[in-house]
Design brief:
By secondary structure, the chain is mostly helical. It contains four helices and no strands. The protein has two domains: about 30 residues; about 60 residues, no CATH class. Helices cover about 85% and strands about 0% of the residues. α3 packs antiparallel against α4. It is flat and about 50 Å long.
């Protein structure tokens, strides 16, 4: 399979823009003032969304997902850092998938 140069450039440009918008959003949220109600909403919504996304995957019996969720939970409880928990979950799930 041959990759055309401009196709590769377009894919890399889209990846860069996607990363910039996500990273920029996290950076921007640090400096924006929020009311107490907005803080509570933003504090609770991610848990509900993550729960809704993970519950079907956990009940499917996939050991990589279960190991990743366990790793994320452990790292989050130990470090209180969300991105570290996500990184640990991805790494553990990838290792489990690679070993199976």
């Amino acid at each position: 399979m041959r990759i055309e140069f401009w196709n590769l450039v377009a894919i890399l440009a889209m990846a860069a823009v996607t990363y910039a918008t996500r990273a920029g959003g996290f950076a921007l949220m640090r400096w924006l003032p929020f009311s107490q109600g907005a803080k509570q909403f933003l504090g609770n919504v991610p848990s509900a969304v993550i729960g809704a996304l993970l519950a079907p995957a956990l009940f499917s019996g996939d050991p990589a997902v279960a190991a990743g969720v366990g790793a994320a939970l452990a790292v989050r409880l130990l470090t209180r850092h969300d991105l570290a928990a996500v990184g640990a979950a991805m790494a553990v799930a990838a290792l489990v998938r690679a070993s199976l």
